[in-house]
Amino acid sequence: MNRRNMLYGAAAAAAGLAGAGVAWWEFQPHRVVPGQAETAVVGAAGNASDAFWRLSFDTPDGKNLSMSSFRGKLLLVNFWATWCPPCVEELPLLDYFYQENRDKNLQIVGLAVDQPTAVRTWLQTKPLHFPVGMAGLGGTELSKSLGNLAGSLPFTAVFSASGELLHRKIGKVLPEDLAQWARLV
Fold first, then answer.
1. How many angstroms separate the CA atoms of 149 and 102, rounded?
2. Which uninterrupted H or E stretch holds 21?
3. pLDDT computed for residue 163 by the predictor
4. What pLDDT sits at residue 14?
5. Alpha-carbon distance 74 to 129, whole Å?
């Protein structure tokens, strides 16, 4: 092998390792540093966390789901869509976790970044025990304001009982993530 091919191979290996490292970092649950989630997406109303608590969403059955009604509980907000395979794979795990922990001052809310008809149809065959809000395409911008800069799905944000954004996770929630977050209650 000549020297040029060895250099190309080394450069390719270094780029691959760098990409794998970035991917690993992105998909880990991250503790939020105060001020880190603040972005211009929420406007002049304050930081992303404050603006979040003023939001409300329609539910699939047309009722109002106000985020302020969950203050005082550890809140896991999961952004998902019916067309997102990792989203629909993690929903049964989230639902089971919610059923096991709902008496412990913990709440899960699913925000569907999807068409209302698709969500209603999906929920008829796979009902969830936690509330679901219809975030629509605006849900992507909301998730970006909470630290999901790429707008990827699934995305989960964890808020303390006092309303502070504590953690966020890009990608599928794992049992280890839920165990970590359960210790926050």
1. 30
2. helix 3-26
3. 93
4. 46
5. 17
Q: How far is it, in rounded angstroms, from Cα 166 to Cα 5? A: 47
pLDDT score at 185: 84
Residues of the chain with pLDDT under 70: 1, 4-48
- pLDDT of 28: 44
Global confidence as pTM: 0.76
CA distance to 56, 57, 61, 67, per residue, from 64 (Å): 7, 6, 9, 10
From the centroid of its chain, how far is CA 162? Answer: 19
Q: What are phi and psi of 167, to 5 degrees?
A: -140, 160
For residue 80, how many C-alpha atoms fall within 13 Å in the half-sphere facing its CB? 27
The one-character DSSP state at 161 is T
Query: For residue 29, what is the DSSP state?
Result: -
Helix (H) or strand (E) holding 65: strand 64-66
70 CB contacts (<8 Å, ≥6 apart)?
A: 107, 109
DSSP 92-103: HHHHHHHHHHTT
Question: pLDDT tens for residues 49-94?
Answer: 788 999 999 999 999 999 999 999 999 999 999 999 999 999 999 9
Report the distance separating Cα 146 and Cα 102, nearest Å.
24
Nearest CA among 31, 59, 61, 64 for reference residue 160: 31
